[in-house]
Amino acid sequence: MEKYEVVKDIGSGNFGVARLVRDKSTNELLAVKFIERGIKIDENVQREIMNHRSLKHPNIVQFKEILLTPTHLAIVMEYAAGGELYDRIVKATRFSENEARFFFQQLISGVSYCHTMQICHRDLKLENTLLDDSAAPRVKICDFGYSKSLLSSLPKSTVGTPAYIAPEVLSKKQYNGQVADVWSCGVTLYVMLVGAYPFEDPKDPMNFRKTIRRILTVRYAIPDSVRVSVECRHLLSKIFVANPEKRITIPDLKMHRWFAKNLPLEMKEGGSWENNAVNTPSQSIEEVQSIIKEARKPLKVPTVSRHCVGSSMAIDDAEE
After folding, report:
1. DSSP codes of every residue in 285-297
2. Residue 297 sits in which domain range?
3. Which residues participate in catalysis according to the annotation?
4. CA atoms of 21 and 282, how far apart (whole Å)
5. For residue range 194-234, what is the model confidence (pLDDT) as tens digits?
6. Segment holding 132, helix H or strand E
7. Residue at 282 is within a domain
8. pTM for this prediction
9. Annotated binding site, which residues?
10. CA 255 to CA 253: how far, in whole Å?
């Protein structure tokens, strides 16, 4: 870490702590996620690193490199100075339809690219959707800890965040992770429009069992007090479909009339955002795997790490 200067702490979670750093040679601000060496360097961490490093897209936080400190594995990545999309919605209560579409188009652009690269995210949510600090904020998808490469097998583990999780993910059978991602994107769109989660009971939002029942029966409604166009309602009805085989796909979603309205040129078919290549980070796969292997070894000295309980969940993930 000698090449970086720590500026401040910017977050914490199950993983440990995230810090803002400055590259001493370029003056670039970057985000570094520190994960304690040893047992915390599990399959999720390895999957996050290996999947994230292969992606390069304007709507995905850019992976830079991984490093070892005496006590932690450090994942260096692009810094999204605009914070979480979630915080922006909380501040605004809800977005106008045009503003929601502006962010949703970018989200779908990033997710579509992930799927093209045979990776499903499996934990898409507002908290994992960051923004840069430009005048017209650019969406940056982050946190690939529950991501799954579809080159090996279809996912079957129940992972994700309850409010965003698709019905088929709860079945504990194999499911199409790409189609499940579409459902989560739909939840994100609904929250941007309404300022509440579609499948939570407003009178009992912390009742997890009730939320699950509502997801399984696709029970949701748009409040009378919120104006949403017929076209947008139609798109939501195509996303919130219990049978994944009948749910709208990303290619069809991108052709939907509501989505295509005011679509930036770079996001259209053949546009610059649709033609991104595999990322070519400075470290080879062999070097990354070697660092991860070293980071998994038990620490010889006790350490104290900052952490808090997150809201994402994983059940039987080892099966994959």
Report:
1. HHHHHHHHHHHTS
2. 4-80+289-319
3. 123
4. 19
5. 999 999 988 888 888 899 999 999 999 999 999 999 999 99
6. none
7. no
8. 0.88
9. 33
10. 5
